[in-house]
Amino acid sequence: MSGGMRQTPLTCSGHTRPVVDLAFSAITPCGFFLISACKDGKPMLRNGETGDWIGTFEGHKGAVWGCDLNADASMAATGSADFTAIIWDAVNGSIIHSFNHSHIVKSVNFSADGKYLLTSGNEKLLKIYDLNKLEQSPTVIAGHTSAVRQALFLNDDKWLVSVADDKTLRFWDRVTQRELRTIELPAAPRGIELSRDGNVVTVCCGNKVSFWDVGKVEKLKEFEIPTKVNSATLHPDKQVFVCGGEDFKMYKYNFESGTELESFKGHFGPVHCVRFSPDGELYASGSEDGTLRLWQTTVGKTYGLWKCVNPDSIENVDNSNVHLET
């Protein structure tokens, strides 16, 4: 472990089922925020630095598979097994609009300018909704032959990227709705992430994590991990990446060399999602065990709730409110 110190995660309880997706906002005048999607159907908003519970979005009638926050954290989006994607007012928790789908919605993503919402899932389609024209039919992009796991806006919102159970990674021109490139993968990819600067797409597939140059649409590097990987996240400065998967462990690697820097048991179940905070000081992970955990990028640094004199004193702090009805 770095500096000989033990990694002491902050455990955020409150969810009652597996936590399957999470997303950070950008840094706002009020700090930054974290949203989590859970199979309990009750996505939660937290303070991104401390993990403190802010509120629960009540309204879905099924498991929530995907979540996102717009840059200034004024709006949240969630996708659910109840065949809807919902846009929420993230300040008061009310529903702004619900978009009906014909199947499970697995992924939601705000455009960089916050004007559009991209949804994908078991319909095998990508759908783009104009948030200024909520009643308008979405732009629909077809091409995948199986359920889409995740889709993101790319390249200043001019492109899209998606991964699906048809074992492909696809890049699309958003304006023409044409496929720019399809990459066949050896297995069904688990998830993707766009780097904070928008230049690199991280792809998890089998026991490998690969990184793709957005501008050239080509693979930069690929590393093998000791387990089947469900999620990976690249640090904003691109020095390290963190990933997690089926063996309950968190792994940190040097991005340039692929050298494993540290690994430790992080959860009591497979890790489903992991993301760096926008300032890179911490990363959050969500697991089958129903918890969300916050980890320090630099162990022992005074930051957020790690301002205790004795790090052991926060070992089992439940820093979530138990009263979840907003």
From TrEMBL:
<dbReference type="InterPro" id="IPR015943">
    <property type="entry name" value="WD40/YVTN_repeat-like_dom_sf"/>
</dbReference>
<keyword id="KW-0675">Receptor</keyword>
<keyword id="KW-0418">Kinase</keyword>
<dbReference type="InterPro" id="IPR001680">
    <property type="entry name" value="WD40_rpt"/>
</dbReference>
<dbReference type="Pfam" id="PF00400">
    <property type="entry name" value="WD40"/>
</dbReference>
<comment type="similarity">
    <text>Belongs to the WD repeat STRAP family.</text>
</comment>
<feature type="repeat" description="WD">
    <location>
        <begin position="98"/>
        <end position="139"/>
    </location>
</feature>
<feature type="repeat" description="WD">
    <location>
        <begin position="264"/>
        <end position="305"/>
    </location>
</feature>
<keyword id="KW-0508">mRNA splicing</keyword>
<dbReference type="InterPro" id="IPR020472">
    <property type="entry name" value="WD40_PAC1"/>
</dbReference>
<dbReference type="GO" id="GO:0032797">
    <property type="term" value="C:SMN complex"/>
</dbReference>
<dbReference type="GO" id="GO:0000387">
    <property type="term" value="P:spliceosomal snRNP assembly"/>
</dbReference>
<keyword id="KW-0677">Repeat</keyword>
<protein>
    <recommendedName>
        <fullName>Serine-threonine kinase receptor-associated protein</fullName>
    </recommendedName>
</protein>
<keyword id="KW-0853">WD repeat</keyword>
<dbReference type="InterPro" id="IPR036322">
    <property type="entry name" value="WD40_repeat_dom_sf"/>
</dbReference>
<feature type="repeat" description="WD">
    <location>
        <begin position="57"/>
        <end position="98"/>
    </location>
</feature>
<feature type="repeat" description="WD">
    <location>
        <begin position="141"/>
        <end position="182"/>
    </location>
</feature>
<keyword id="KW-0507">mRNA processing</keyword>
<keyword id="KW-0808">Transferase</keyword>
<dbReference type="GO" id="GO:0003723">
    <property type="term" value="F:RNA binding"/>
</dbReference>
<dbReference type="GO" id="GO:0016301">
    <property type="term" value="F:kinase activity"/>
</dbReference>
